[in-house]
Amino acid sequence: MKYDLKNPDESKQASIYLAQLIVTDAVVEIKKVSPRRSLNQNAYLHLLLGAFGQHFGYTLEEAKIIYKEVNQYTYKYKKKGREFWKSSADLSKEDMAKTIDLFMKVSAENGCELPLATDKEWLMRISNEIEKNGRWL
After folding, report:
1. Are residues 20 and 77 located together in one domain of the fold?
2. Do 45 and 107 belong to one domain?
3. C-alpha count within 13 angstroms, C-beta hemisphere, residue 79
4. Containing structural domain, residue 25
């Protein structure tokens, strides 16, 4: 169960629940829930990946792999001697913003300048281009 502790009612409910668990000698896990990436960030990232893919001739899936490779410090992890890749759904809004910024920088350095999230006209154009060419969607 998740409780928003800035809400007095939910904070009280959380305290009551925790007290009940303490009385029963339960084993519990308490952790802070970080805000996940937003739907807007996800949509923006997919537009960037599509534009990148179109520019360099990659599919959306191939562009996602390149994006994660560029941001391997965030996505790559090791477990039992093997390497794995996290999902972008596991990132906080802040981490997602950092990975998008780095991807945009690397893309620009390689000849494909990508639009900022505030450039609605350019994003609309990219969206239309991607829609015309379903290969990158």
Report:
1. no
2. yes
3. 6
4. 1-33
Which residues pair with residue 78 across a beta bridge?
A: 83
Q: How many domains does the chain have?
A: 2
User: Distance between CA atoms of 17 and 3, rounded to whole angstroms?
Assistant: 11
Pick the closest to residue 74 from 63, 82, 65, 86 (CA basis): 86
Strands 82-85 and 76-79: antiparallel
Band of the pLDDT at 37, cuts 50, 70, 90? low
Q: Specify whether 65 is located in the same domain as 110.
A: yes
> Which residue blocks in 78-119 are alpha helix, DSSP H?
93-109
CA dihedral for 82, 88, 92, 96, sign (positive or negative): positive
What is the sign of the dihedral through the CA atoms of 84, 88, 90 and 91? positive
| Residue partners of 11: CB distance under 8 A and separation at least 6 | 3, 4, 5
Q: Mind listing the pLDDT tens digit for each residue in 53-102? A: 999 999 999 999 999 999 999 999 999 999 999 998 888 889 999 999 99
